[in-house]
Amino acid sequence: ASDGIRGLRAYDPGHDLVALRHRFGAQGLLELGSNENPYGPSPRVRDVVLAALDSLHIYPDPLGGELKRALATKHGVAMDCILLGNGSHELLMQFAQVFSGPGSDVVAAQYGFSVYALAAQAAGARFVAAPALPRDHAMPRGHDLDAIAAAIAPSTRLVYLANPNNPTGTWFDRDALAGFLQRTPADVLVVIDEAYAELADAPDYASALSMLDRHPNLIITRTFSKAYALAGLRIGYAVAHPGLVAVMERVRESFNVNSVGLAAAAAALADEAYLQATSAYNARERDALADALRQRGIFVYPSQTNFLLAEFGPRSIELERELVVRGVVLRPMAGYGLAECLRISVGDAAGNKRLLQALDEVL
Ligand code: PMP
Question: Which end of the chain is more exposed for a tag (fewer CB within 10 A), N or C?
Answer without folding.
Answer: N
